């Protein structure tokens, strides 16, 4: 496990930069200034220059960043310029739903295996993947060089699944169970939280008719 | 619809501030400086002071922000200090999965109605909610004062659902369908994207064994 050189907050902003840069590229925009990026993302330009300076000196004063070059650089930094195989444990509603997104996962990142601890689920076919038993986890992670694990089991089972992922050699985990999970140092865990999206939406609803 | 006074990017950062502040409060921390917030969120303190200054002068030089007061203030700004009813359209895997999160949705925000355009789904009970037909959408939104809509239908049906939500008087939409949706000005739409989480996780995987 390499030591991360940039902070988690910056890493989390990179896909956001990437999405906006990809939009620019799709619109044939060749260069972008830190001012323009700042306006779009409402970060001050100094913050953006600082974020991007972690990776070398991309920008050119008075011209800005080359959009295509910056996209390639961020893809390389995020390591999404290579194949990354993902496993998912929990063939319930959320697991099935996420595996549907496989077709939309760009950048060579794919869910290639689905596991479930309940024998009734094993053998079921979900989006062309046959649900495997947890006994097959270690061997499959090894054979398929799976690097990232997604947890979509109930909260009560999430820690056990995380332990199994760690044991199998998974390096990073995306946890959808609404519970805090502990992993050893060196293993990365992110908690997916759609409630944050809902909370920020509430800001935009109308005040007027709420006054009761 | 009121005119939003603060930018989308700031609104999106508020729930992140809120989560960290809630952790601090749970640990009996009474005050926090913009420096500490900055370190945790890897934003520069000036950015944080600027974000929070949108809502008045909370901070006191040398003492920092009162954690409880800041939490209440952000809750009030985000309007999550009141009841907000949410409707969901699409009783498929993702819709079922999200309605499971109801128990974890804090701050009085609840999914109170589920709809589906397919008659086979109507009447099914999901987490104590009986799936309703789309014909009942307008009346239910009205009766239950539903303000936010969640879309969990396939991409091909998402625009139609958004149009129905707008027609029913929904003010904000959280779209999980992997497709860009158009809504009239004054209606807020956020696109949920779990792929961003996955992309930022890729940064943390080990380089060494990838060199082939």
UniProtKB/TrEMBL annotation, chains A, B:
Belongs to the transcriptional regulatory Rex family. It is found in: Cytoplasm. The keyword DNA-binding applies. One of its GO terms (cellular component) is cytoplasm. It holds the Pfam family CoA_binding. NAD(+) binds at residues 90-95. Its main location: cytoplasm. This is Redox-sensing transcriptional repressor Rex. NCBIfam families: PRK05472.1-3 (NF003989), PRK05472.2-2 (NF003993), PRK05472.2-3 (NF003994), PRK05472.2-4 (NF003995), PRK05472.2-5 (NF003996). Gene3D superfamilies: NAD(P)-binding Rossmann-like Domain, Winged helix-like DNA-binding domain superfamily/Winged helix DNA-binding domain. One of its GO terms (biological process) is negative regulation of DNA-templated transcription. It comes from Paenibacillus swuensis. Modulates transcription in response to changes in cellular NADH/NAD(+) redox state. Keywords: Cytoplasm, DNA-binding, NAD, Repressor, Transcription, Transcription regulation. Residues 16-55 bind DNA. InterPro entries: CoA-bd, NAD(P)-bd_dom_sf, Rex_actinobacterial-type, Rex_DNA-bd_C_dom, Tscrpt_rep_Rex, WH-like_DNA-bd_sf, WH_DNA-bd_sf. Homodimer. Residues 79-180 form the CoA-binding domain. One of its GO terms (molecular function) is DNA binding.
């Amino acid at each position: 496990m390499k030591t991360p050189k940039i902070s988690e907050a910056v890493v989390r902003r990179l896909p956001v930069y990437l999405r906006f840069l990809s939009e620019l590229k799709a619109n044939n925009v060749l260069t972008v200034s830190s001012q323009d990026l700042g306006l779009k993302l409402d970060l001050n330009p100094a913050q953006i220059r600082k974020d991007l300076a972690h990776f070398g000196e991309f920008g050119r004063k008075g011209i800005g960043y080359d959009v295509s070059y910056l996209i390639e650089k961020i893809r390389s930094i995020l390591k999404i310029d290579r194949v990354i195989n993902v496993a998912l444990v929990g063939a319930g509603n959320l697991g099935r739903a996420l595996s549907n997104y496989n077709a939309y996962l760009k950048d060579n990142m794919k869910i290639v295996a689905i596991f479930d601890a309940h024998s009734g689920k094993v053998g079921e076919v979900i989006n062309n993947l046959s649900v495997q038993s947890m006994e097959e986890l270690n061997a499959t992670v090894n054979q398929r060089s799976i690097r990232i694990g997604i947890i979509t089991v109930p909260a009560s089972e999430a820690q056990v699944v995380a332990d199994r992922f760690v044991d199998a050699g998974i390096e990073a985990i995306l946890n959808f169970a609404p519970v805090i999970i502990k992993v050893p140092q060196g293993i990365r865990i992110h908690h997916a939280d759609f409630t944050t999206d809902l909370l920020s939406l509430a800001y935009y609803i109308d005040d007027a008719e709420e006054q009761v």
